[in-house]
């Protein structure tokens, strides 16, 4: 199950409450029930006795070992950023940080894991592609939703569609969009080029110069620096698909940190977790968002 990261009694307990191809997330907390989430619900994994499966330190250590090929030090650069990646599965980690002069050197006593399981959903962009690819052009698009709202799945499909006509590059800082393993995508992203594990600030500048993309796709914008970088990319003539956490377009653009996005975004795709993760709540053009912000 999940490339062998989950096996034995734990795998049986997970399978007892959800089918593997429906699971979007597992949450492990030492001493607490293992939680299993699908696009529409969440519940505790259960053993054959009917009791919840309680996570042990050994479970955490085993997953960390397998995910790092039993060399956790080799992935320390990822751990200090709060995650690991293994063949398309992003593993969020939490525990005790070792800090020196304000910098996180490593993580120890890791007792909490979140396994994000990627899914390819081919029709997820059907309701928005007419706006994003309109009048023979591709539009700068911002995908907005709360955490775990389906942003990455939407971006992955938009990237695949864009690559049919445009030189498209994915900047996959946390190995989620293309979910590359040893540089090769494990998800179908069409004919996209992919840069994984590199910070956006570095990847933006280097890839525009070296790869000459027409479209850049990236997720999880965070703060003023990322916002300004997107503005710079668009002004260089490259189109951008990006995502960030938020309730709606107005709440995002009313923040000073994301003011630059309002100047360049042409289409806003707002996702909701109801009735299920990835539901398209709104597709707005820039003019409609400006009217709302003005109170019109």
List the helices and strands and how they pair.
Elements: H1 8-15, E1 23-29, E2 35-38, E3 42-44, H2 57-67, H3 76-79, E4 83-86, E5 89-100, E6 103-116, H4 129-132, E7 133-134, E8 137-138, E9 141-145, H5 151-162, E10 168-172, E11 180-181, E12 184-185, E13 193-196, H6 200-211, E14 215-218, H7 223-235, E15 239-245, H8 249-253, H9 259-264, E16 267-272, E17 279-285, H10 286-293
Parallel strand pairs: 9-15, 9-16, 10-13, 10-14, 14-15
Antiparallel strand pairs: 1-2, 1-6, 2-3, 4-5, 5-6, 7-8, 11-12, 16-17
Short description:
With 296 residues, this protein is α/β, with parallel strands linked by helices.
What does this molecule look like?
The structure is a single chain. The chain is α/β, with parallel strands linked by helices. Helix content is 28%, strand content 30%. It has helices spanning 8-15, 57-67, 76-79, 129-132, 151-162, 200-211, 223-235, 249-253, 259-264, 286-293; strands at 23-29, 35-38, 42-44, 83-86, 89-100, 103-116, 133-134, 137-138, 141-145, 168-172, 180-181, 184-185, 193-196, 215-218, 239-245, 267-272, 279-285. Strand 14 (215-218), helix 7 (223-235) and strand 15 (239-245) form a beta-alpha-beta unit. Helix 6 packs parallel to helix 7. The radius of gyration is 20 Å and the shape is globular. The termini are far apart.
Mean pLDDT: 91
- List the secondary-structure elements in sequence, H or E: HEEEHHEEEHEEEHEEEEHEHEHHEEH
How many helical stretches?
A: 10
Major β-sheet strand ordering: 13-10-14-15-9-16-17
Rg for CA atoms: 20 Å
Distance between the termini: 52 Å
Strand content: 25-35%
């Amino acid at each position: 199950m999940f490339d062998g990261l989950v096996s034995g009694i734990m795998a049986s307990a997970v399978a007892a409450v959800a089918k593997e191809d429906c699971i979007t997330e597992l949450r492990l907390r030492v001493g607490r029930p293992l939680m299993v989430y699908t696009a529409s619900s969440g519940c505790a994994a259960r053993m054959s006795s009917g009791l919840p499966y309680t996570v042990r330190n050994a479970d955490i250590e085993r997953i960390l070992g397998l995910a790092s090929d039993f060399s956790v030090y080799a992935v320390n650069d990822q751990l200090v950023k709060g995650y690991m990646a293994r063949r398309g599965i992003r593993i969020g980690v939490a525990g005790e940080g070792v800090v020196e002069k304000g910098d996180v050197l490593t993580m120890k006593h890791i007792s909490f894991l979140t396994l994000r399981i990627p899914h390819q959903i081919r029709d997820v962009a059907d309701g928005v592609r007419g706006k994003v690819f309109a009048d023979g052009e591709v539009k700068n698009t911002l995908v907005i939703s709360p955490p775990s709202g389906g942003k990455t799945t939407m971006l992955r499909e938009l990237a695949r569609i864009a690559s049919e006509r445009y030189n498209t590059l994915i900047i996959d800082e946390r190995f989620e969009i293309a979910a590359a393993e040893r540089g090769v995508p494990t998800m179908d992203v069409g004919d996209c080029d992919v840069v994984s594990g590199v910070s956006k600030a570095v990847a933006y500048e280097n890839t525009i110069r070296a790869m000459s993309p027409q479209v850049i796709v990236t997720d999880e914008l965070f703060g003023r620096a990322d916002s300004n970088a997107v503005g710079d990319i668009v002004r260089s003539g490259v189109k951008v698909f990006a995502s960030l956490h938020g309730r709606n377009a107005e709440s995002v653009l009313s923040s000073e940190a994301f003011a630059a996005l309002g100047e360049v975004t042409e289409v806003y795709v707002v996702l909701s977790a109801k009735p299920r993760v990835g539901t398209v709540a709104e597709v707005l053009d820039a003019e409609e968002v400006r009217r709302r912000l003005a109170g019109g």
